[in-house]
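Moderator note: this is an archived Q&A kept for reference. The question asked for a predicted structure of one protein chain; the sequence and the answer are reproduced below.
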Amino acid sequence: MNKRLPYSIKIVSGILIFFISVLPAQDYKLQEHHSEKIIDGIYREIVLEDFETFSPGESDIRQFGPGKPIIEPRTDFPSPRPGSQKYLSWFIPFESADRLRLTWPSPLVINGYLREIKIWVQSTHLPGSLSLLVKDARGIVHLLNLGTLNFRGWQQLTIKTPDNIFQDDFYPGHNSQIKILALQYEPGPVSRKRKRQVFATDDLTAFVREKYILPAERMQ
């Protein structure tokens, strides 16, 4: 003889089945989140350029237009980064309101796996933007936009490494490199009232990790 279960028991059974089916998914999300924290923990910040000793020459500055911009080290108002004493001042007169590029005499080399790049910038609500010229492991040069300078005071700009930046080794032990070639300023629309554009740059850093290091190996 078939006996039907009371209606209240059916409800309780349904609730239990629901929680049993949901709990594994919640546990997986927790493990996934924990894994992200471990991955973040294996990156370290390295200084690519602190501008403490770098003094650009005429051959390092390329102006895409008339006028004569001035890029020089100064000590008046260094960035909030601890230990910073010098920074690079950029002075662009109105007649030079065109693209300006600062090239390092030797590229800044990154050997590890790059996650992001940061740079300190001081601005006075400028309409322009700052970019990096980066050469990936295949030799392809990319223009990475760090962001606009429409703010006042010191601020740290960040760019995540795009997926199209190739940085894998071609074979084990190859040690491919990423190279920072230049820092470029795009003035953008310039008001007639603005006679000049002045901003500053300080500590350029990168967050990198060793290649082929698994998070589990860091936990041992």
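Archived answer notes: Residues 7-41 form the longest helix (35 residues).
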